[in-house]
Amino acid sequence: MNRIGKLALVAGILALALAVPIATAHLIYVYEAQVTVQPVTPLLWLNGTSSEVSAVNLELTNKSNPQISLDIPITNSTETYVYQALRVEALASSPYLYVANCSYSGPNLTSVELIVYAPTLGQSPTSPAGKITITPSSTSCTSSGSVQLAAGTIYYVDFAVQPSLPIPYGASSGTLTLYIGVSNQGGGVALPYP
Predict the structure, then answer these.
(1) Full-model pTM
(2) N or C, which end of the chain has less CB nearby within 10 Å?
(3) Are residues 2 and 59 in the same domain?
């Protein structure tokens, strides 16, 4: 074998020796990564700023999975309106807010509307981000609707209560309890609550 043939043979063996590890490198090496993700509470709930909040004995409990309770004065007026009863800030993503479950005790109501709006986005009770309608009765309570919130925005929640008229003599206030749900999709799914 001449010198050029030997060099060609050595070069071929060297190329083959280099090609095998390169071709099989993805089979030999395994890369592992550990990622720690801190859970983020999607919403921050606070009591509203108006004096009407104390007038209806509004209670906000369990702020991570909020339960809202308020006493609704039942009068012969066509509507009782509680202005800026709650404040809510969307901290992450663009979640949907809905009423997962509710209960009511007291005189019959036609409906209760939760009106959600963000003044910083130019919204108001007359042009809200959305409304959630609750239809309470002595045996059940149903809700419909959801409102999408924008991340980093503070919203106010008003309550518009429409009683069933006429109010019976001696009727007292009613108590409405709401379990608020948060979803990443519109039209929340009803969840069982204790």
Answers:
(1) 0.69
(2) C
(3) no
